[in-house]
Amino acid sequence: MHLVGGHPTYIPLGTTANKAGRVAGANAAGGRERFPGVVGTSIVGIFGMGFATAGYSVEQARAEGFSPIAARIEAQARPRYFPRARRPL
Ligand SMILES: Cc1cc2nc3c(=O)[nH]c(=O)nc-3n(C[C@H](O)[C@H](O)[C@H](O)COP(=O)(O)OP(=O)(O)OC[C@H]3O[C@@H](n4cnc5c(N)ncnc54)[C@H](O)[C@@H]3O)c2cc1C
């Protein structure tokens, strides 16, 4: 379930498999747990830069009937006190 759009979605990530597996295991052992869904958070590193996403892109949000507002920010991927912290390229 996509927690923003509120409908079934297919975002096959290990983090989702892990959480869903824990819920399935608990329920198989008599529990009554629920896995509420995902917002599709992911990050990938390419040539030293990090590309991350969570929720919908502007295009996806429009397609889902939302009226998104977009803003661009530049920020460090690591706090100043972390090793290799630096301003964005
Ligand atoms: C190259 C690659 C990189 C990825 N990187 C990331 C990442 O960085 N972060 C992230 O969150 N996700 C990542 N993923 C996705 C993540 O690995 C999968 O979403 C996750 O492993 C799915 O888990 P699963 O348990 O549903 O399925 P699987 O991990 O595919 O496990 C299914 C298991 O069932 C077994 N099986 C299949 N059929 C049968 C059968 N008939 N009888 C018995 N056993 C069977 C298979 O052998 C397998 O062991 C990546 C995937 C790939 C391919």
The gist of it:
This protein has two helices and two strands.
Describe the structure.
Helix content is 24%, strand content 11%. It is α+β, with helices and mostly antiparallel strands and 89 residues long. Strands 1-2 form a two-stranded antiparallel sheet. The radius of gyration is 17 Å and the shape is flat.
Q: In which range does the helix fraction lie?
A: 10-25%
Cα distance, first to last residue?
36 Å
Task: Give the topology string: H per helix, E per strand.
Answer: HEEH
Strand neighbour order, sheet with most strands: 1-2
Poorly predicted spans: none
Strand content: 5-15%
The total strand number stands at 2
Structural class: alpha+beta
How many helical stretches? 2
> Which whole number gives the mean pLDDT?
91
Spatial extent as radius of gyration: 17 Å
Q: Which ligands occur here?
A: flavin-adenine dinucleotide
The major beta sheet can be summarized as: 2 strands, antiparallel
Give the overall shape, derived from the CA principal axes: flat
SSE arrangement:
Blueprint: H1 14-28, E1 42-46, E2 49-53, H2 58-63
Antiparallel strand pairs: 1-2
Essential attributes:
two-stranded antiparallel ribbon, flat, alpha+beta, single chain, 2 strands, 89 residues, 2 helices, binds flavin-adenine dinucleotide
